[in-house]
Amino acid sequence: MRRRYSEVGKPDILGQAGWMYADLFLALMVIFLATISFVPKVPNLPSTTIAAKSHSDQAAQYLVSKIYPNFDMAAIRSDIVSYEKSNGLPLETPISSIQIVGGYSPSLETPDQGAMRALIFGMKLKSADPTHFSSIGASLDSSSALTSTEVQLNLEFGG
Questions:
Q1: What is the pTM of this model?
Q2: How many structural domains compose the chain?
Q3: Exposure check for the chain: N or C terminus, fewer CB within 10 A?
Q4: What is the C-alpha to C-alpha distance for residues 130 and 109, in angstroms, rounded to an integer?
């Protein structure tokens, strides 16, 4: 009887390529998850007061801090214009940074709830005046020096 020879072919590498793709995807996900932060750190800062500061270089920067019991865009605009006039800044001076501090009551709430008030205030601020505030990143904080209904807005002007 005659023997049949089966042709020994090359192994199929298509299956191995799929496993290599899956391993690469898994490695990228591990790197991505290791580099991001899931929980924002919300420091508990004391309330600051209105102050002006200047740097040694020619571009001066000014910091204005104001406490608001509720969101009132007309009051915020008025405070910005009056601050610019009183410090000799040109009108519509660009705002370089924003810090929003939400108040909370330590006996009833956590600092996260103050930070949530700051976040809501910031979203209202950006939606009320998107031309001035939408391109600036804001830092959010909480403070027990403020009441649970107050939000402090710190604006830094300058180049």
A1: 0.59
A2: 1
A3: N
A4: 31
Distance from chain centroid for Cα 35: 17
Residue 153 placed within a domain: yes
Distance in angstroms between the alpha carbons of the first and the last residue of the chain: 94
When pLDDT is averaged across residues 41-67 and rounded to a whole number, the result is 52
In a domain, 116, yes or no: yes
Q: How far is CA 60 from CA 2, 85, 146, 154, in A?
A: 98, 15, 29, 16
Most confident of 3-7, 48-52, 82-86: 82-86
In a domain, residue 44? The reply is no
Write down the pLDDT at residue 6.
Answer: 65
Cα–Cα dist 138/98, whole Å: 5
Residue at 129 is within a domain: yes
CATH at 137: 3.30.1330
Cα–Cα distance measured from residue 67 to residue 143, given in angstroms and rounded to the nearest whole number: 12
| pLDDT of res. 1 | 66
**Which range of residues forms the domain containing residue 127?**
51-157
Q: What is the Rg, in whole angstroms, of the alpha carbon atoms belonging to the chain?
A: 28
